[in-house]
Amino acid sequence: MSLITLIVLAIALGTDAFSLCVGIGLAGVNRRQIILVSLTVLVFHIAMPLIGWLAGEFAGNLLGRAAAIAGALLLVYLGVKMVWETWRHRLEQAPVRVDFSVGGLLLLGASVSMDALSVGFTLGTHQANLLLVAGLIGIVAGIMTFTGLVFGRFLGGWVGERAQLLGGLLLVGIGAKMILEVL
Fold this sequence. Notes:
Blueprint: H1 3-27, H2 31-55, H3 57-92, H4 102-112, H5 114-123, H6 130-159, H7 161-182
Helix pairs in contact: 1-6, 1-7, 2-4, 2-5, 2-6, 3-4, 3-5, 3-7, 6-7
């Protein structure tokens, strides 16, 4: 594989994380959350191709579908929670932040990196340096995640409360789309 092909592959794999993180960023994230989410996605985008390469196609298909559904349901949950918090915020006038537990971060990282798992299955057949490819995929996904969160945060500060509602609806839509694709 050429370097250009690898970069295009890495960007394609990072687009889910970017679009999701714009929605999360709209809800309002702090610097710590931006760093935690970006590093989590980076690590998962390195680990998933390696796991896919080791696990084989059969196991990956079984895990991929279950994890994709769980990840999509998490997105729907986060989106509904954001919409609910926006409505509740109007009543209480309290600032709303999306909090990520360790489990939530792990599920988020897994859900946006499922495509990278399937890429791992094909890496061995293309005479690619597995560690180089996985590292490049992870770095690009981490950068795209960071960029999506910062961009969403910027937009959220600019458009205010409506941004959280929009971000919540975006997450529900992305999650629903992911569920339909899996089913």
